[in-house]
Amino acid sequence: MTGHTDPVTSSLDPSIAARLKRSPDGLVAAIVQQHDTGEVLMLGWMDDEALARTLTSDRATYWSRSRQEYWVKGETSGNRQWVKEVRLDCDGDTLLVKVDQEGPACHTGTRTCFDADVLLADD
Amino acid sequence: MTGHTDPVTSSLDPSIAARLKRSPDGLVAAIVQQHDTGEVLMLGWMDDEALARTLTSDRATYWSRSRQEYWVKGETSGNRQWVKEVRLDCDGDTLLVKVDQEGPACHTGTRTCFDADVLLADD
């Protein structure tokens, strides 16, 4: 039993909930992109309730798989994400969340979570 | 037992393999982005062998969770992805794959997998 909200008890619009194809632990992937520059900032995970809060609060909310709790991005660090646009992909298991990121998105202090480890570089 | 290659028998560089944090079914998420425009095209999944092939062949290769087989993007459709850059995120479970996408990335015929379903629109 996971700690997060059952889809039937979340506040997510039922017509959106019906289109989600959740992982076995009830989550969809959320690709987070800076709305104006196009930088891919991070990948997070959302259950129905995290998505509902993201759609209605202007602030990106995720489900932390490691801590098993909701987290509002930037709540402790101040590096907040202001939600601009949210899209669902063709098979309903991935969100594209366009945000305005304050400061670094990565907990390591870099702008994005993809800044440090380049496996293959563009020529 | 899944059908894909065990990490120890894949051709992936061991120093890269050691940095991956795989899901229970041995996969990492791969965010696919058009290298010049910044469009997020799709989310795929890779095991060690798919990543090895992506890094060495110029063409993006994924592990299909539904079909339980490797797929080289565009092999049947012609909508090929030419790999420009590959990055690993801070906690080793997500790749950012920058590609040059020929034609539509989505099997529905749209440019990206996020074109059809807007949950929240930018003002």
From TrEMBL, chains A, B:
- Where does it primarily localize? cytoplasm
HAMAP family reported in the protein's UniProt record: HisI (MF_01021)
**Native source species:** Nocardioides agariphilus
Give the binding site residues for Mg(2+): D89, D91, D93
Sum up the protein's function in the record's words: Catalyzes the hydrolysis of the adenine ring of phosphoribosyl-AMP.
- What's a single GO CC term here? cytoplasm
Question: One GO biological process from the UniProt record?
Answer: L-histidine biosynthetic process
Reactions catalysed according to its record: 1-(5-phospho-beta-D-ribosyl)-ATP + H2O = 1-(5-phospho-beta-D-ribosyl)-5'-AMP + diphosphate + H(+); 1-(5-phospho-beta-D-ribosyl)-5'-AMP + H2O = 1-(5-phospho-beta-D-ribosyl)-5-[(5-phospho-beta-D-ribosylamino)methylideneamino]imidazole-4-carboxamide
NCBIfam families recorded: PRK00051.1
Which Gene3D superfamilies does the record cross-reference, listed alphabetically? Phosphoribosyl-AMP cyclohydrolase (3.10.20.810)
Belongs to which family? In the N-terminal section; belongs to the PRA-CH family.
Please, which domain of life does this record's source organism belong to?
A: Bacteria
Q: In which pathway does it act?
A: Amino-acid biosynthesis; L-histidine biosynthesis; L-histidine from 5-phospho-alpha-D-ribose 1-diphosphate: step 2/9; Amino-acid biosynthesis; L-histidine biosynthesis; L-histidine from 5-phospho-alpha-D-ribose 1-diphosphate: step 3/9
Subunit composition and interactions: Homodimer.
Named cofactor requirement(s): Zn(2+); Mg(2+)
GO MF annotations in UniProt: magnesium ion binding; phosphoribosyl-AMP cyclohydrolase activity; phosphoribosyl-ATP diphosphatase activity; zinc ion binding
How is the cofactor bound, in the record's words?
Binds 1 zinc ion per subunit.
Binding sites annotated in the UniProt record for Zn(2+): C90, C106, C113
EC numbers listed for it are: 3.5.4.19
For this protein, the record's InterPro entries field holds: PRA-CH, PRib_AMP_CycHydrolase_dom, PRib_AMP_CycHydrolase_sf
Q: Which Pfam families does the record cross-reference, listed alphabetically?
A: PRA-CH
Limits of the Phosphoribosyl-AMP cyclohydrolase domain: 42-114
Q: What is this protein called?
A: Phosphoribosyl-AMP cyclohydrolase
**Where is this chain's protein located in or outside the cell?**
Cytoplasm
- Keywords from the UniProt entry: Amino-acid biosynthesis, Cytoplasm, Histidine biosynthesis, Hydrolase, Magnesium, Metal-binding, Zinc
